[in-house]
Amino acid sequence: MENKQAIVMSGIRPTGFLHLGNYFGAVRNYVRMQEEYSCYFMVADWHSLTTHPDTATLKDHVKRVLAENIASGLDPEKVALYCQSHVPETAELYLYLNMMAYKGELEKTVSFKEKVRLQPDNVNAGLLTYPVLQTADIILHRASYVPVGKDQEQHLEMARTFANRFNHRYGEIFPEPYAFNFGEELVKVPSLDGAGKMSKSENQLATLYLADDDELIRKKVMKAKTDSGPTEPNSPKPDYIENIFLLMRLVSEKEVIAKFEADYNGCTIRYGDMKKQLAEDMVRFISPIRAKATDIKNDHKYLQDVMEKGAAKARKSAQVTLALVREAMGLNYY
Ligand code: ADP
Questions:
Q1: pTM of the model
Q2: Which of 200, 220, 275, 297 is catalytic?
């Protein structure tokens, strides 16, 4: 990792099974970035406690997230792949940043407002300060690039605000972190019912998971919302139809997509055929990842080794940053 220049950091919460949104928004970029950058990728177990206080399934989900990342092509030898709670330096930096984050700005965060709506009985302080902990995760390694999906744009803006605030108050330590995607645009993978995005814990029947078996993938795709088709040539596509094309662009061959685009524009499209094709292309894409992930997840000794090595790499980088932070803040007493 030493000779790679720019630093990359990102994380995924162990709140369930990884889905196509996680894959195309995050993991696919991780896999490409590991060749060129110095990368830190973590399973964000502390973050999951903000919405999932019951930890009965946590261990299993942590292993699953690790296994599914590795099965998707992430190489633990090339990157630091670790579990957030194994790097306690994160909590110290989070504490310092909390002194510079204001209640008003945190309450305005879109994801906070959304979660208050979803869990009105558990509006805990961790939920409010989620963007602060996320900032700590990122700037702990003085990372510049953060591969994430579109839903994270506002959090990255806040991470820049907090990093700059620290720099102005105590001295220039942190680069500004930016959301990153190899295409120009950040990705949002829509759910199959046309309402919202694919997600680990909501919308499960309209989300395609990397662990879904072939029959379930086919069933979910065939249930995607369509209509009787356009009646005017070259009409604009309704959102739910655009979503099916978007999913096809992620996994299908160019010629296949071109054929259905032409059919749509000529008003001859048969959505049943399109969904059958999409289902088969999804099966072809997901099934090898699923098979690999199952093998890796069952290899407990290997996963323990991955976590230990990852934590050691992450703590080494974190301790360098924390020494700089304490010095800048005047917390170095001897
Ligand atoms: P989830 O929302 O499924 O719980 P996380 O909050 O753990 O996922 O996010 C992990 C990564 O996956 C983040 O980079 C996030 O931007 C990305 N991501 C999650 N859902 C989607 C989606 N539907 N489309 C694109 N990226 C997504």
A1: 0.93
A2: 200
Cα(139) to centroid of ligand 1, in Å? 20
Q: Which atom of ligand 1 is nearest to the CA of 190?
A: 23
152 CB within 6 A, ligand 1: yes
Q: How far apart are CA 76 and CA 242, in angstroms?
A: 36
The beta-strand segments (E) located in the chain are: 7-12, 38-43, 80-83, 145-147, 178-180
Topology (CATH) of 7-187+300-329: Rossmann fold (3.40.50)
**CATH number among 3.30.70.270, 2.60.40.1180, 2.60.40.1940, 1.10.240.10, domain 212-293:** 1.10.240.10
Strand, helix or coil at 82?
strand
The alpha carbon of 14 and the centre of ligand 1 are apart by a number of angstroms equal to 11
Task: Tell me whether residue 115 is one of the annotated catalytic residues.
Answer: yes
Fill in the DSSP letter of residue 6. S
Q: What is the pLDDT of residue 4?
A: 61
Give the model confidence (pLDDT) of 224-281 as tens digits: 999 999 999 999 999 999 999 999 999 999 999 999 999 999 999 999 999 999 999 9
* 250, two tokens: 């992620």
Q: Where in the chain do CATH 1.10.240.10 domains reside?
A: 212-293
